[in-house]
Amino acid sequence: MENMMCNPGRLVLSNVEQRAGLNSPKISVPKGGLKHLNILAQRRSRQVLVQCAHQSASQTRERNTPSKIVATRRDLLVSGATLSFVSSNKLQAEAASVSDEEAVREAIDAAFKQTLPPQKAPSVLRLVFHDAGTYDEASKTGGLNASVRFEFDRPENFGLKRGFGPITKAHDLLKNSVAKDISFSDLIACGGAYAVRMTGGPSITVPLGRLDADKADPEGRLPAETLSPSELKAHFAKGGFSAQDLVVLSGAHTVGGKGFGEPLSFDNTYFKTLLERPWNAGGSKMDVEMAQMIGLPSDKALPDDEECYSWIELYAHDQDRFFKDFESAYLKLADTGATYA
């Protein structure tokens, strides 16, 4: 009679399993422990269930004795019990992992509460864009990997040390905490998300586990401030980003000193201002000069592009949609070029 025996930590194969091509006599605990054992046992049990089902269907006419029918059903029941056992252990392991990650995230937030005041939020957010902005889709190089800490002497990164200060201080604070192994690249991604949230923007939970680069990324990969909309779209496309991504991520310019509303308020004022185009308005010489100081040349050019304009108009009238799409685009940005442990 075909038989399968199972106890915690050991799975003995039945004849049914051997016919299914599972030739190993048992599953030994591999490197990685019970979590990997659970995954292997789950896969094996599912294979057995499927094999038994096929055999039961094809051999119904041949099996006329009650004992053989009982044996087949018993194989199925034991396989189900095995799957239940390993699934239970897997859930327990996953629950512990989730709990550990929550503790790490809480520690990171606590560190940023001490190191990242609201005034530094625009600089930290700019740091994220300049670190991730070196990504090139064709060569799969660059991206958010903390290489920016080797690139502060580049003209386009002038002033970025101000944004990296809170990251370094948080990294030092976390050395003796549950988040002691956190990377600089994780903290940059989390710092940008924290900056968005603390200034009134959406809450963004970025994945953890990035590895840091040990050298600078290639130069000349950040977009110039004078690019036209078509040039900007082409540049963003090299990083795997769409025109919508370009527009919604540009909405981060709403914080900082670029003249789009309150400097420490993350909202959709950026898009409302682009629709108003105050730099084209008349008035006194001072008014004209002040209006010209709003935003970057590339910001002012975006509404001139029909595709970009449609997204600008949408976000100007729907802040909730802006927040939702910004969260998705930020997660995409924070994942560009990232290498995970």
**Amount of helix:** 55-70%
Low-pLDDT segments:
1-50, 56-71
Distance between the termini: 47 Å
Strand order of the largest sheet: 1-2
Structural class: mainly alpha
Q: Given the structure, what is the number of helices?
A: 13
Count every beta strand, where a strand is a DSSP E run of 2 or more residues: 2
Tell me the domain tally.
2
Q: Architecture of the largest domain, according to CATH? A: Orthogonal Bundle
Order of helices and strands: EEHHHHHHHHHHHHH
Gyration radius over CA:
28 Å
Q: What's the overall geometry? A: globular
CATH topology description of the largest domain: Peroxidase, domain 1
Fraction of residues in β-strands:
under 5%
Can you identify the CATH class of the largest domain? Mainly Alpha
Largest sheet: 2 strands, antiparallel
What's the rounded overall pLDDT mean?
A: 80
Task: Report on this structure.
The chain is an all-alpha fold and 341 residues long. The chain folds into two domains: 5-98; 116-335, Peroxidase, domain 1 (Orthogonal Bundle), CATH 1.10.520. Helix content is 55%, strand content 2%. It has 13 helices and two strands. The chain has helices spanning 15-19, 34-58, 66-115, 121-132, 161-173, 184-198, 229-238, 243-250, 269-276, 285-292, 297-301, 306-317, 319-335; strands spanning 5-7, 10-12. It has a two-stranded antiparallel sheet. A hairpin with a 2-residue loop joins strand 1 (5-7) and strand 2. The longest helix has 50 residues, at 66-115. The two termini are 47 Å apart. 34% of the residues are buried. Mean pLDDT is 80; it is low at 1-50 and 56-71. Pfam families: peroxidase. One of its GO terms (molecular function) is L-ascorbate peroxidase activity. This is L-ascorbate peroxidase.
